[in-house]
Amino acid sequence: LASNRYDIQRGNFAKATQQDINYFKDILSSQSAVITDAEELIGSNTDWLRVVRGSGPVLLKPENTEQVSKIMQYCNNRNLAVVPQGGKTGLVGGGVPVFDEIILSTSRMNNVIDVDKISGTLVCQPGCILQELEDRLDSDNFILPYDLGARGSCHIGGNLSTNAGGIRLVRYGSLHGSVLGVEAVLADGTVLDCMSTCRKDNTGYDLKQLFIGSEGTLGIITKVAIALAQKPRAQCVALIGCNNFENVKQVFSSARKDLCEYLSACEFMDSKIMSLVENHLKLTNPVQTSSFYVLIEASGSSEQYCKTALLDFLETLIESKVIKEGIVADNSVQIKDVWALRERVLEACQHDGYVFKYDVSLPLRVFYNIVDDLRSRLGSQAKSIGGYGHIGDGNLHINITCEEYNKQLEKAIEPYIFEWIGKYKGSVSAEHGMGFIKRKYMNYSKSEAAYNTMKGIKQLLDPKRRMMDI
Ligand code: FAD
Ligand code: 2HG
Ligand code: ZN
């Protein structure tokens, strides 16, 4: 249970009774929408990383906003705590109970409401799975303005709630810029309609932004409108080997300059991470062993230009001795294979043992120093220390593994790592959010005044703190 490892403050909430369950069955009008079977509940109570496990006694699967509103109103009157759950791929223990919260899943709220092919907008319910949306939009030559390795399970509502970054943020920017409208149900059941499909709307405070990245602490997203991007006609991917991190930075800045609007992803991995992917997943690295690897994706409207630009780019880098070697993948199978090396890192690290995960923003001038620093600090206490991530966004993922959870190792890492990040004005959570695991480190990235303002907003929207606290 989460309570075994973490210090959990359970508020003075009511516990769900049989009468409550009967009420939920009544309003959801389907037996399969109210799950109380202990076996079935294990999955919904355990997070993707299997480090947080609560004891939520009931899983509710409403189909529409009205049902969500009724549940929230009832839980407010009864003083029952609630946790919203999407695809359950979150990495900070946010989408599962940590004590005995009611679990409200959006898995049955999975209808596409409208795709406007002229303006390129999508309106849908929050439980649509990202991959399914991508497949559906493909034939109309649209893509969502973000993408991530969890696409097969994560929900668009979960993506908004975590303000997921992912692999294309370098081109399309964050969800704060692409989301056009949100409908949310507040903790007391009020339906807050901030739906719009307009690109521009400066009528006062932009309240929908509060729900992007607030991880279910302020309400439940029940509808989403998002601006789509045009599907590029051409796509090529390069995998590049570099001798040192200075060269990685040079590759990134040259890619911005030379590939310009064709640059659609810029990711990196160090050699430790690549070796975990090769050893645990048996994937093949197509370039010679290097200290670092950079994945550059170019995409746009001209097939001819896309490949030529990427090849020219590599040639220039090799001539100027910035890189040792690079390969270009230009057919869908090869492209998938190269992306798998990067997208399956999380899975490879999980195979290595228990993983202490850090998802940080840092200025590029000190970006990788933290990994070197942790290596000298931790020495043989850790099994592997690897750095990788979205270098194009200044976002580093540090994964530190050991055979099994090790309190002493944790103490050697934390709060040292957060102090390090605070010193360089980075972020202790670049894209995964605070959830339950990271929220206690907020002060390393938020000023007192900013945190107090957040608390004021929380007090206004969820005064009884029946949703996850901040
Ligand atoms: P869940 O895990 O179910 O929930 C996440 C949080 O949102 C919880 O706090 C939950 O309570 C809340 N929530 C869910 N739905 C709602 C709703 N409708 N209303 C209000 N609150 C809600 N993240 C990145 O940013 N970039 C990546 O590249 C990336 N890659 C990943 C790759 C893998 C293989 C995995 C497993 C995860 C990855 N993630 C990444 C983590 C990322 O946060 C999630 O994958 C995703 O955004 C969460 O969506 P979900 O539907 O699974 O949400
Ligand atoms: C990714 O970019 C995800 O693959 C997971 O954000 C990062 O290992 C991690 O923590
Ligand atoms: Zn990431």
Your description of this structure?
The chain has helices at residues 2-5, 18-28, 38-45, 65-78, 130-138, 156-162, 169-172, 175-178, 245-259, 271-281, 303-319, 332-343, 345-352, 369-378, 407-413, 416-423, 448-461; strands at 34-35, 59-60, 82-85, 102-105, 112-116, 121-124, 142-143, 179-186, 191-194, 219-227, 229-230, 234-242, 263-270, 292-300, 325-329, 354-361, 384-390, 395-402. With 470 residues, the chain is α+β, with helices and mostly antiparallel strands. It has four domains: 2-105, Uridine Diphospho-n-acetylenolpyruvylglucosamine Reductase, domain 2 (2-Layer Sandwich), CATH 3.30.43; 112-230, Uridine Diphospho-n-acetylenolpyruvylglucosamine Reductase, domain 3, CATH 3.30.465.10; 234-343, Alpha-Beta Plaits (2-Layer Sandwich), CATH 3.30.70.2190; 353-432, Alpha-Beta Plaits (2-Layer Sandwich). The strands form four sheets. The protein has a seven-stranded antiparallel sheet, with helices on both faces. It has a five-stranded antiparallel sheet with strand order 5-6-10-8-9, sandwiched between helices. It is globular. The two termini are 21 Å apart. The mean pLDDT is 96. The structure holds flavin-adenine dinucleotide, (2R)-2-hydroxypentanedioic acid and zinc ion. Zinc ion is lined by residues 389-390, 397, 431.
